[in-house]
Specification:
By secondary structure, the protein is an alpha+beta fold. The chain has helices spanning 4-14, 57-64, 77-91, 185-188, 190-194; strands spanning 30-40, 46-55, 98-102, 105-107, 113-120, 123-136, 140-145, 152-156, 162-165, 172-176, 208-213. It has a single domain, classed as Acetylcholine Binding Protein, Chain: A (Distorted Sandwich), CATH 2.70.170. The longest helix is centred in the middle third of the chain and has 15 residues, at 77-91. The chain is globular, with a radius of gyration of 18 Å.
């Protein structure tokens, strides 16, 4: 079954991409480097998560083929706007690959706002803010980012991967990066990954986690 991340990758084909044969024979297919900001209101509640997802060079090259550009070698925000719209719309099916719990209870999000794509040194970066449906006040907030089908591999940027914007001074956070799976593609085969869906939880072992503690 084709999941939402697969459809994002196929969106690149819609925009003039040709999928290389070797890219179709391994998992994952897309790599994303993230920077995340948890945005706080003056009263200390978390209002949303501001994301910057930088795609790997190969995906970025495919995704931008066929897009008209005024200046060779670069793309403006306006030129990339249709692709940004499609990507954000497609991400909705999977909950934007973001899960959050406040004091152990699942929280929900509204649709993204303030989204756009930029292009720098051959790489696309998708910027968007994911607002909580209601501001979150919690002693313990856990945010997890991962693709259940592991079609895409998410990883935090090594430098300043997470920032608390406007948070109370006593709030502290820790970042936990995934340790990876002991299961190899050779053991399970590509059909195994094709059978995974966004509603499953197999990819949770690759989750990037942010834990925020506020006394």
């Amino acid at each position: 079954m084709i999941g939402s991340l697969q459809r994002i990758f196929l969106t690149a084909i819609v925009f003039g991409c040709v999928l290389a044969a070797d890219a179709a024979t391994a998992h994952p297919h897309v790599w994303v480097t993230m920077r995340s900001e948890l945005v706080y209101a003056p009263d200390g509640a978390v209002t949303g998560i501001r994301q910057a997802w930088t795609f790997d060079d190969l995906f970025s090259t495919y995704a931008t083929q066929g897009i008209k550009q005024k200046k060779k070698g670069t793309f403006s925000r306006e030129e990339l706007a249709p692709l940004a719209e499609v990507n954000v719309t497609t991400l909705k099916d999977s909950g934007y690959f973001t899960r959050a719990r406040a004091d152990g209870k699942r929280t929900t999000f509204n649709e993204p706002i303030d989204y756009w794509l930029d292009y720098n040194q051959g790489a696309l970066t998708l910027h968007f803010t994911l607002p909580f449906k209601a501001p979150v006040r919690a002693r313990a907030l856990m945010v997890e980012i991962y693709d259940p089908t592991w079609f895409v591999d998410f990883g935090f940027n090594d430098k300043n991967p997470v920032v608390l914007v406007g948070a109370p001074s006593q709030c502290k956070f820790t970042v936990q990066k995934p340790t990876g799976s002991t299961v190899t593609l050779g053991q399970v085969g590509e059909d195994f990954f094709n059978s995974l869906t966004s509603s499953g939880n197999w990819g949770a072992q690759f989750a990037n986690k942010v834990s925020v503690q506020c006394p």
